């Protein structure tokens, strides 16, 4: 996935905004060490550090990390792989918002997180649940099929039972887990849906000419208008899973 950090910051601020609700589950006092895993442009890294905790931000995207360093020069940011963290017994909390659904090998990811946590440390995360963006993916898949291609979703969207089992099988103690609908307004009025599609389906769209991409976007807007347009803005059909799990030994 190639991220456009400038577009992400300007058009998708809702990602960090909704992630703020997770902060209540994080001890952010000065004696704490926190990893913001998949930090993006650093908006939530700043909030995690506001109470005096030492916070490190990590993201797989160089452009995101560059933007985070520009936005928050007093904080530490690194480029790295969430499923291959270089730390051991380092963090009191690993915080992650809207990231885990991008990572195909969840067992490797959970093992990486567990290794990096101190004993008694907590994973606090939220990401896409089963049924997330179903309408958007169906519309995009139909446009690919109409052009003789098959859309393969890159996302991992589990149900709570499935994810609880994964966490427990990897030795994490689940303290909180739930999934819920979270209809999400997209900024920029009429352009909101296409901004979202261009950001998150960029690799698939890259197969086509600019003219064909425009036809795909217009067709998706037409198909989805009755379901996702509320008269003023596009509202994406988000569903989320939220989990808090502790490394007890």
Structure description:
With 249 residues, the chain is of the alpha/beta class. It has helices at residues 5-11, 14-19, 43-49, 62-71, 106-116, 134-146, 160-169, 192-200, 202-205, 210-228, and strands at residues 33-37, 54-59, 76-79, 91-97, 117-128, 172-181, 184-185, 235-236, 239-247. Helix 6 runs antiparallel to helix 10 (210-228). It is globular, with a radius of gyration of 18 Å.
Largest sheet: 7 strands, mixed
Number of helices: 10
Gyration radius (Cα, Å) is: 18 Å
Instruction: Determine the mean pLDDT.
Output: 93
Structural class: alpha/beta
- Identify low-pLDDT runs: 8-12
Helix fraction bin: 25-40%
Distance between the termini: 35 Å
| Order of helix and strand elements from N to C terminus | HHEHEHEEHEHHEEHHHEE
| Global outline | globular
What fraction of the residues are assigned to beta strands by DSSP? 15-25%
If strands are numbered along the chain, what order do they take across the biggest sheet?
3-2-1-4-5-9-6
> Strand tally, please?
9
Q: In short, what is this structure?
A:
This protein is α/β, with parallel strands linked by helices and 249 residues long. It is 39% helix and 23% strand. Strand 2 (54-59), helix 4 (62-71) and strand 3 form a beta-alpha-beta unit.
Topology, pairings included?
Blueprint: H1 5-11, H2 14-19, E1 33-37, H3 43-49, E2 54-59, H4 62-71, E3 76-79, E4 91-97, H5 106-116, E5 117-128, H6 134-146, H7 160-169, E6 172-181, E7 184-185, H8 192-200, H9 202-205, H10 210-228, E8 235-236, E9 239-247
Parallel strand pairs: 1-2, 1-4, 2-3, 4-5
Antiparallel strand pairs: 5-9, 6-9, 7-8
């Amino acid at each position: 996935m190639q991220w456009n950090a400038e577009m992400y910051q300007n058009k998708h601020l809702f990602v960090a905004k909704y992630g703020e609700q997770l902060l209540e589950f994080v001890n952010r006092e000065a004696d704490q060490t926190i990893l913001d895993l998949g930090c993006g442009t650093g908006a939530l890294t700043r909030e995690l550090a506001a109470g005096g905790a030492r916070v490190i931000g990590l993201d797989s995207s160089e452009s995101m990390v560059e933007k985070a360093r520009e936005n928050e020069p007093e904080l530490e940011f690194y480029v790295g792989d969430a499923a291959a963290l270089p730390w051991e017994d380092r963090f009191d909390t690993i915080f992650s918002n809207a990231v885990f659904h991008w990572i195909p090998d969840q067992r490797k990811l959970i093992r990486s997180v567990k290794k990096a946590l101190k004993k008694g440390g907590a994973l606090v995360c939220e990401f896409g649940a089963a049924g997330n963006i179903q309408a958007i993916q169906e519309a995009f898949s139909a446009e690919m099929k109409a052009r003789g291609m098959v859309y393969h979703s890159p996302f991992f969207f589990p149900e709570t039972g499935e994810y609880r089992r994964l966490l427990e099988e990897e030795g994490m103690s689940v303290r909180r887990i739930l999934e819920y609908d979270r209809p999400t307004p997209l900024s920029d009025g009429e352009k909101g849906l296409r901004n979202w599609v261009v950001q998150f389906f960029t690799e698939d769209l890259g197969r086509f000419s600019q003219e064909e991409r425009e036809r795909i976007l217009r067709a998706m807007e037409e198909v989805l208008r009755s379901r996702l347009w509320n008269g003023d803005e596009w509202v994406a059909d988000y569903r989320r899973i939220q989990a808090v799990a502790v490394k007890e030994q």
